[in-house]
Write the structure tokens for this entry.
Amino acid sequence: MSLDKVKVQHIAMLARLKLADEEYASSVEKLSRIVDFVDQLSQADTSDVRPMAHPLDAAQRLRPDAVTETVERDRYQQNAAAVSDGLYLVPKVIE
Amino acid sequence: MSVYSQTLTELATGLEAGEFTSLELTAALLERIAAHNETLNAFITITADEALAAAARADEARAAGTGGTLNGLPIVHKDIFCTRGVKTSCGSKMLDNFISPYDATVVEKLAAAGAVVLGKTNMDEFAMGSSNETSFYGPVRNPWNLECSPGGSSGGSSASVAARLIPAATGTDTGGSIRQPAALTGTVGLKPTYGRVSRYGMIAFASSLDQAGVITRSAEDAARLLGVMAGFDERDSTSIEQAVPDYLAGIGESIRGLRVGIVRQHFDAGLDEQCGARVKDAIAVLESLGATTVEVDLPNLDLSVPTYYVVAPAECSSNLSRFDGVRFGHRAENAEDLEDLYCRSRGEGFGDEVKRRIMTGTYVLSAGYYDAYYLKAQQVRQLIADDFKQAFADVDLIAGPTTPSPAFKLGDKVDDPIQMYLNDIYTIGANLAGLPAISVPCGLVDDMPVGLHLVSRHFGEETLLRCAHQYQLQTDWHKACPEAFK
């Protein structure tokens, strides 16, 4: 298999995903198969091919630097689990 | 004819003639949805109160002569489109508690035209799946055979249109998520050109591939809806500034002289023989209407699925990093610290397939692997787009199968990601190259529907819709209705 548990643990850490212990066996197996499957790309001759940046070859559009949004913090914060005085609450970061 | 079996176009005529009001129509369809949803599981949310209020407003607007082009017509939205004041779950536990504070542009435009929204449809979690089995809310069942998948990820949309619960539904298509479910349920599925319809408010999966479209029972209805949904939107940075044609205007014109490309590789061993036969019959109908067929080559077709499964997970891993348990979405309880809050909120909130895609994407973007996977895939993606460009030098559109086989049984492919991914072999190319494509019902194999897949040049929607409509004037496959829902 192209991946092992240590590698998958590293990927999960990078992705900020906590996996249960029993999820690892299946994850290692299935992710290895996906990696093996996409490995066939290495056979393609892509010398001198520019990687695609946009499917329609369009450039990124810019907008005028003007204020367009209104402040609706209270309404948006209704979807948050913990807020106080307009701030989002998270566990203590600095002791 | 009962209202539920009518297309949007027919219903518009009935409303205009005063045969029924939007309120009566909406109430009748809500009743039908309530009667069948337990069997099909096609809806995550039914917005009965909002629908009845919107229908009443539509009736008033009609009386006042101020109704829009879709005034009083019933539709449903895939639950990926943010809808103000309504739960927008994206099929995920992560967003099970999310009430959208704003409307997606698509939702806004359809509402402004007078459409009445009856609910939000079930889907694969974050649109990642081809069978609707990855939904947190359970799989949708195919109205043609309840043991089968309706396809995915827009499975609730395809099943509800096929079962005559609603004449039209929105969908999104990143690798085939409108066209594959349309093919497997005998409905019409249109994925427009990348950038044609705004992605604003459409929960992002893979931003360089995602495009909104529709599932309907006729090409004419798809044209009617696309005309309303399409157009430039400054709130979507990849929206294209190009005028929207009148898609209905040209669909009545003949396809005589249309050059239709047939891809050699499409009819290889991977295709179910009977499906292939139905698709060839459909192509013969196009020829009988005066189209000429030309063999074309897409030499890198086999690489489209592996290319997609690098590019799409890479973009997904980036897009889904916003779900952190802080501002919205699922939040783990009793987190030890901030890191633990992130990791557990995400670990608990996402399902297996979404985690797999995030991890695949994280891997292919990680230090030491980026060039070998992500950069390489974007190069192969360019090769695939070049293949289409070359083919379109000779032809106006490409015709072939939408899927390798008719609908598969629920549970059959759920443990084998690669088999599941290969279901999208014929549809993924259009996403990689940003091309418009449509799936049109073209026959039955063992009583299960099969789709004809048409792909055109960038902004070639008019050609697609005209060809599909002309085909439907000659055939009745789009009128076939699953026995239990007649």
